[in-house]
Design goal:
- Residues 128-278 form the HhH-GPD domain.
- It is an enzyme of class 3 (hydrolase).
- Keywords: DNA damage, DNA repair.
- This is DNA-3-methyladenine glycosylase II.
- It comes from Glutamicibacter bergerei.
- By secondary structure, this protein is of the alpha+beta class.
- Among the domains are: 2-85, 2-Layer Sandwich (TATA-Binding Protein); 119-230, Hypothetical protein, domain 2 (Endonuclease III, domain 1).
- Helices cover 49% and strands 11% of the residues.
- It contains 13 helices and 5 strands.
- The protein has a 5-stranded antiparallel sheet.
- α5 packs antiparallel against α9, α9 (181-201) runs antiparallel to α10 and α10 packs antiparallel against α11 (220-230).
- The longest helix has 21 residues, at 181-201.
- It is globular, with a radius of gyration of 19 Å.
- The N and C termini lie far apart (40 Å).
């Protein structure tokens, strides 16, 4: 099946690919900057299908093994993952009223939040990446996907589901991921929670997040990061994120300064500050 999806506004292809690269796992997907494509295996229900996306400024072309009857579900996944329907003009206008963020908003006029194609993937990736660098997080995630993720016929691994993860003990996960036992225990605890509780709470986002944060090993940053990149909550501004704080400092905003982010523009403000830091480095 081949079809195209329109993009609301303009898609910044370079930014989209660069964000995908930060979290990309070589055993899970293939990114091609020259061709502006990504190939990975997406889970639709109980089945998994190799899918390739071609990016342009105004639309995305998809080629997938998924049958026609699953097109609607696939479109929903892609739109949520890449924010294709995200209209940002009003949020940009709000942020341009702030002296501190106006330069970033004008420098990067077409950014959008890039999330994950699956809520459990967002959850696990966030837990694995707590309080470590993105490079270290990719290393842990690569081991996790390699060992537990299903190997698809296309040669790529599928991101593990909650059930297959929860069936491993914390000690087994520690050996697989090669991480501290406390992190492996959090991974196992969160996966078990998702299987038995979390997936049924997902329709009510606040209940989902509140219950998630009751788990040992899950703190406010994890809650907010999942809310931002897993649930696409526009109001979330990651003020405590290290990269966000670094960018704010570079813009002359001190830690104790009050920065009133307009309602609904928190996610865009976070994305802009991440992009600003990435360009600086």
């Amino acid at each position: 099946m081949i079809f195209t999806l329109p993009v609301s506004g303009v898609l910044d292809i370079a930014h989209t690919l660069s964000v995908l690269k930060v979290h990309s796992l070589a055993n899970q997907e293939i990114l091609d900057f020259r061709e502006a494509t990504i190939k990975r295996v997406l889970r639709l229900g109980r089945e998994c299908y190799a899918t390739k996306l071609w990016f342009s400024a105004t639309e995305i072309t998809l080629e997938t093994q998924a049958p026609q009857r699953l097109q609607t579900e696939l479109v929903k996944i892609i739109n949520s993952w890449l924010g294709l329907e995200q209209a940002q003009q009003q949020d940009y206008a709000k942020l341009e009223t702030l002296d501190a963020l106006k330069p970033a908003a004008q420098r990067f006029p077409h950014l959008r939040l890039i999330g994950y194609p699956d809520l459990f993937e967002a959850l696990m990736t966030t837990v694995l990446g707590q309080q470590i660098s993105t490079s270290a997080a990719r290393t842990l995630a690569t081991r996790y996907v390699q060992e537990i993720g299903q190997l698809h016929e296309c040669g790529l691994h599928v991101f593990p589901d909650a059930l297959s993860t929860s069936e491993h003990t914390a000690e087994e996960l520690q050996q697989i991921i090669r991480c501290p036992l406390s992190r492996a225990q959090t991974v196992q605890r969160v996966a078990h929670w998702y299987v038995h509780t979390g997936q049924y709470l997902a329709a009510n986002q606040e209940n989902f997040l509140d219950d998630l944060q009751t788990l040992k090993g899950v703190g406010p940053w994890t809650r907010d990061y999942v809310a931002l990149r897993g649930l696409r909550q526009n109001s979330i501004f990651l003020r405590t994120d290290l990269v966000v704080k670094r960018s704010l400092t570079a813009l002359g905003v001190k830690h104790n300064d009050t920065l009133q982010i307009p309602d609904g523009a928190g996610s865009l403000a976070t994305v802009l500050l991440w992009a600003l830091d990435a360009k600086k480095n």
